[in-house]
Specification:
The protein is an all-alpha fold. The chain has a 3-stranded antiparallel beta sheet. Strand 2 and strand 3 form a beta hairpin. Helix 3 packs across helix 4, helix 10 packs across helix 13 and helix 11 packs antiparallel against helix 13. The longest helix is centred in the middle third of the chain and has 35 residues.
């Protein structure tokens, strides 16, 4: 049975122009023609086309494909192994480029302009999940607080980050101690810790009024990625996120801090 150029192009997922090019170069010449002179492909032509498309998918140039198909004695296995090595090298190169792109995205979305080594040195287990950073950026794109936080984070030096993370680490130890000691989340001591956290955000990122702090705390409970920015997974305890959220809400309910009252006057 014979098939037209358009039929073969449709089945093979290539263009008619591609098949014409294969014909002109001798890579794939249709076995017959119709009475009107149109190219017609036989079953053997389709089998050859399948081989061509297989090698093309692997990235072989057309001249190499022609050489492989022209020589039945060609050591196809060696050529495939050589191509596999080339593909592995290309994959490694693309992976490197992907990491560079991810680094650029991370800088843009988290505002942390440190090298990976500096980031590990300063942040340790604290991570910045890019999917969370992206969603947060989209969610609060029109927020003045988000814009200020990104700008200030981008301006922080390594020493700034070191001081901020040291401060956060010391606060985290006291939060865990209170939790493990059974201090009530809405008790004065833990509310004071919540207030320290709010002041930490204001000091290092953006002015954080109680209403904003409540929204941040609610995110801790709703999204593990958000809480992991404050408490790394290795230090988390069941119920700790809700415990901190309860303290934040209780702290917000007990009235504005003196500096908040001053700003509101």
């Amino acid at each position: 049975m014979s098939y037209s150029v358009r039929q073969v192009a449709s089945w093979a997922g290539v263009t008619v122009r591609t098949l014409h090019h294969y014909d002109r170069t001798g890579l794939l010449t249709p076995s017959t023609r119709s009475r009107a002179g149109y190219r017609l492909y036989e079953e053997t032509d389709l089998a050859r086309l399948q081989q061509i498309l297989f090698y093309r998918e692997l990235g072989f140039p057309l001249d190499e494909i022609a050489a492989i198909l022209a020589d039945p004695q060609a050591d196809v296995l060696d050529q495939l192994r050589a191509r596999q090595r080339q593909l592995s090298e290309e994959i490694a190169r693309l992976q490197c480029l992907s990491e560079v792109a991810e680094r650029a995205i991370e800088v843009q979305q988290t505002g942390v302009t440190l090298t990976p080594q500096e980031r590990f040195e300063v942040f340790g287990e604290i991570g910045f999940d890019l999917s969370y950073a992206t969603e947060r950026q989209v969610k609060w794109a029109d927020s003045e607080g988000q814009r200020e936080a990104m700008a200030r984070a981008a301006a922080h030096t390594k020493e700034d980050w070191r001081r901020a993370m040291s401060e956060a680490g010391e606060w985290r130890e006291r939060l865990l101690a209170a939790f493990e000691a059974g201090e009530p989340g809405d008790g004065p001591a833990v509310m004071d810790l919540a207030e320290e956290h709010r002041q930490h955000i204001t000091r290092w990122f953006t002015t954080c009024p109680p209403a904003m702090h409540r929204r941040i705390a609610d995110d801790f409970v709703a999204d593990p990625r958000a809480f992991a920015v404050v408490v790394p997974p290795s230090q988390q305890r069941p119920g700790l996120a809700a415990y901190l959220a309860k303290a934040v809400h209780a702290n917000a309910a007990r009235g504005p801090a003196p500096e908040d009252a001053a700003r509101g006057s």
